[in-house]
Specification:
Elements (H helix, E strand, L loop, with lengths): L1 H19 L15 E3 L6 H15 L5 E8 L7 H12 L8 E8 L4 E6 L9 H7 L4 H5 L3 H17 L4 H39 L5 H26 L12 E5 L1
Parallel strand pairs: 1-2, 2-3
Antiparallel strand pairs: 3-4, 4-5
Length: 254
C-alpha cells in the first residue's frame, strides 16, 4: 500500500514537472482597468498613457471602440489565433452598445503577433487592412524596439480607422453630450412627481405625530434608490462589456 502511494507521488511530480514546460501563457480572465497586460515587459509608460487616453477618447465617440493590448513571452505551442480569440472573448472587449473591440497580441519568443477584430468593428476595419497594418511594426520589432513599434501601429490604426473624422459622427457625439441636461431634467421631474404622490398619500392617511418623519423617510429612501440606480448605470457603461468575436483579424511574424 505504501509502495503504491510512493509510486503515485512520483508519477504526480513527474507530470507536474512535464506540464511546467507546456502550460499555456497565463493571462487574466478579466481585462485590466487600462486594457493592457504586459507580461513580456516591453511597453513603456508613454505607450501605456497613450492607450489609456485613446480608450477614453474612443468611449466618447459614437463608435464606442475599446482597444486591448497583450504581450507574452511565449504561446507555448498554442496558435496565436486561438490564444487571441480566447482573450478577446474573456475580456469582453468593446462596449455592449457597440461591440466594437480590437485586441493586439504579441508573443516575443515566438516572434508572432495578431490583430483580433470583433465582428461589428470589421465593418470599418477589415482583415485585409489589418494584415497591411501589421507591416508597420516589423522594422521596429526586428531591432527589438517593441514599445515604439507597437505605439506606431496602434496610433496609425487609431488615426486612420478608429477615431471618427466625419462631421456626421461629430454631430452625433455632441448630441449625446447635450442629452446629459435632458436626463437631469427628466430625473428632476420624476423626483417632484414622486414627492407629490407621497405627500398626497400621507395626507389622506391623516393623523399626527410621526407622519412628517414617515413622509421624509420614505421620500429620502426613494430618492436614494433612484440616485443609486442612476449611478450604477453610468458606472457599468464604462466597463469592458462587449463581445462578438468569431476569429476575424490578421496574424503575422517578424
Amino acid at each position: 500500500m505504501i509502495k503504491k502511494s510512493i509510486v503515485a507521488i512520483i508519477i504526480g511530480l513527474f507530470v507536474s514537472l512535464f506540464n511546467l514546460g507546456t502550460v499555456t501563457a497565463k493571462v487574466p480572465d478579466t481585462a485590466p482597468i487600462n486594457g493592457i497586460y504586459d507580461e513580456a515587459r516591453i511597453l513603456d509608460s508613454r505607450f501605456i498613457n497613450y492607450i489609456e487616453k485613446l480608450n477614453t477618447q474612443l468611449q466618447n465617440t459614437d463608435r464606442k471602440i475599446q482597444v486591448g493590448i497583450v504581450t507574452v513571452e511565449s504561446l507555448n505551442n498554442e496558435s496565436i489565433e486561438r490564444f487571441a480569440l480566447n482573450i478577446a472573448r474573456k475580456w469582453k472587449i468593446g462596449y455592449s452598445q457597440s461591440n466594437h473591440g480590437l485586441l493586439f497580441v504579441v508573443a516575443i519568443k515566438d516572434r508572432k503577433m495578431r490583430l483580433e477584430i470583433s465582428d461589428q468593428l470589421s465593418t470599418i476595419f477589415t482583415d485585409g487592412e489589418a494584415n497591411l497594418y501589421l507591416e508597420i511594426v516589423k522594422p521596429y520589432y526586428r531591432i527589438q524596439d517593441y514599445s515604439n513599434g507597437t505605439l506606431k501601429l496602434i496610433e496609425t490604426i487609431a488615426n486612420e480607422k478608429l477615431i471618427p473624422h466625419s462631421k456626421n459622427e461629430t454631430i452625433i457625439y455632441h448630441k449625446k453630450q447635450t442629452s446629459t441636461l435632458g436626463n437631469f431634467i427628466k430625473f428632476s421631474i420624476s423626483v417632484i412627481f414622486i414627492s407629490i404622490i407621497i405627500a398626497i398619500f400621507f395626507k389622506r392617511r391623516g393623523g399626527r405625530g410621526g407622519r412628517g418623519g414617515d413622509y421624509l423617510f420614505t421620500t429620502m429612501a426613494i430618492l436614494d434608490a433612484l440616485s443609486s440606480s442612476k449611478s450604477n448605470n453610468s458606472h457599468n457603461s464604462g466597463r469592458w462589456s462587449g463581445g462578438g468575436f468569431s476569429g476575424g483579424g490578421s496574424s503575422g511574424s517578424w
